[in-house]
Input
Amino acid sequence: MAFLQSLNLAHIPPDLAVHIALYADVQNAPFLRDQLLQGSPAFEYALIDATVILSTTHVLAAVFRAANDHLNGRLRSRNVHSEIVFSLGANNNIAQSLRTFGITATTTDLLAIKLSTNPSITASTVSEHLAASVNGTPVEFSDATLAKMADGGKIRKLYKLSGVGEADSKGKRRRKDGSEEGSGGVDGIKAGSTGYDAERERKELEVAILGLMALRGAV
Amino acid sequence: MEITNNDPPQPHPLPPPFTHTAPAPTLLTQGAEALLYRTHFLLPSHPCALKHRPSKPYRHPVLDKRLTKHRILSEARTLVKCRREGVSVPGVLALDAEGCGDAGSGGWMMMEWVEGRTVKEVVVEAGKRIKERGGGGVWEEGLRALMGKIGRALGRMHEVGVVHGDLTTSNMMLRPSPTSLQNGTTFTNGAEGDGDDAKSAGESLEGEIVLIDFGLAAQSLQDEDKAVDLYVLERAFGSTHPEAEEGFQEVLRVYGESYKGAKVVLKRLEDVRLRGRKRSMLG
Ligand SMILES: Nc1ncnc2c1ncn2[C@@H]1O[C@H](COP(=O)(O)OP(=O)(O)OP(=O)(O)O)[C@@H](O)[C@H]1O
Ligand SMILES: [Mg+2]
Output
C-alpha cells in the first residue's frame, strides 16, 4: 500500500491526479486481465506489462496524452485508462496497442495507473483497492526499477527501433537480473559501456519512442 | 463603439492544456505561422520548446484545421526521421495536431529544448570581432570550423533524404558541448590571439550544430531539391552575413566531402545559381 505514488503532471489540472503502483512477482495476472476484459467498473485501470516500459518518462508521456485527449473530449478508446495503454503504441490500432502493452495472462511485472476522473477516486481508495486485488510485491515506481524490468530487445522490436541508441548492435545480451551496476539496466544496451554511455543510449531510445508515440503512425 | 488604431496586437492565447501551466510558458518568437515558447515537459525540471500554430481566423475552419494538422504532423515526422537516423535535431516529445473548440485552438508540438544560440547570432558576433581585430585570428579560425560543421550537418541531413525547405542561419543552433564548457577551447594555441580572446572565441564558436524549424521540410532524394536547399541558404547567408560571405565556401567544401552524392549536388547548385541569376536579370 505504501508504494502507491500520486502525482500531478505538468500542464494537467491538479484535480486530475495520477495514481501509480508498480508490482513485481505478480501471481494473479489472469484474474486481473479477466476483470479488465469484462469491463468491471471497479477495475477501470491502465494495467500495463512493465517489461515493455523503458522509463517513467515513457509511460508518463502516454498518461499525458490520454489526459489531454480526455480533457478535450477526444478519447478514441473506451475510457481514459484504456487510452493510456493505446497511447503507448506507435500506430492507430487500438486493439494491437492494448495487446502489446496491456497486461497479459503471463505478466509478472505490472504497472497499474488510475486517474482521479471524479472526486471519489483518491489515493486511499485506489491504494486499498489495489492492495485487495493485486497479488504481488509492491516496488517503487522509478527509473531504476523500470530499467531493471524493461526488456530492451523487445521494446526496440515493437517500436522498430533496432540500432537506435545502440553503440554496438552485436553486443546485445539479455540481462534480466539487472546485476551490472551502473549499466542503466536496459537489455540490449552494449555490455561494458560505461554508465554515462548507457544513460545516453537509453535517452536516445527514449526520445525516439516519444516521437513515434506522438506521431501514432501518421504518414 | 470606439475604434482606435493603437491597440497593441492581440496576443495569441495559449492552446489547452497550457492555459494551466505554472510557471506560464515564455514566448520567445512569434513568426508568421508559429509561436515559439519555452516551457517544461512533464516535470518543471525538464525544459522543452513548445511550437504553437494558432488557427487563422480568415481561413475556412475546415481548411484551417486540415492545414494546421498537416503542418504539425509534417514537421514532427521529419524531426522523428532525422533523429532516428542520427541527424542532430530536437526530438519530438508530444503533439496535438487537432486542437479543440469550435473556433479552433490550432495545434502544438513539444520538442526537446536546445541550449545555445542560433548560428545567426554566433556568426554576427564573430563577424564583429573579426572586423575589430582584423582577419587571420582565432575568431576567423573558429568561424571557419563552424562553417565546416554546418556543411557536415547539412550533408548528413541530405544523405538521409530530407530537404529542409527554409535553410537560414536562424534555423540552426549551436549547442555548446558539455566538454567544451569544461575544458575551455581548442583554439587556445592560436599564436595570434591573446589568451582571453582565444577563450571567448572558443566558448562562443565551439559546439554542435542542431538543425531546427522543419515546418517546410520534405523527404527527397532529388539532387535538384538538395541543390535548391543549399542555394536558399547561400542567398540567405549572403544577405544576413555579407561580411562573412567567403566563409560560405567552407560550408560547401565540407558538404562536398560529407556523403556519396554530395559532389553531384554541388554541380547541380551551379545550374540553380545560373537560373537564379537569369531570373533576377529578367525580373
Ligand atoms: N527546440 C528549440 N530549443 C531552443 N530554442 C528553439 C527551439 N526551437 C526553436 N527555438 C528558437 O525559436 C526560434 C523560432 O523557432 P522556429 O524557427 O522553429 O519557428 P518559426 O521560424 O516561427 O517557424 P515556422 O517557420 O515553421 O513558421 C528559433 O530561431 C530559435 O531561436
Ligand atoms: Mg525559423
Observations:
- Confidence is low (pLDDT under 50) at residues 187-193 of chain B.
- The beta strands of chain B are 26-30, 35-40, 47-53, 92-96, 107-112, 117-118, 162-163, 172-175, 208-211, 218-219.
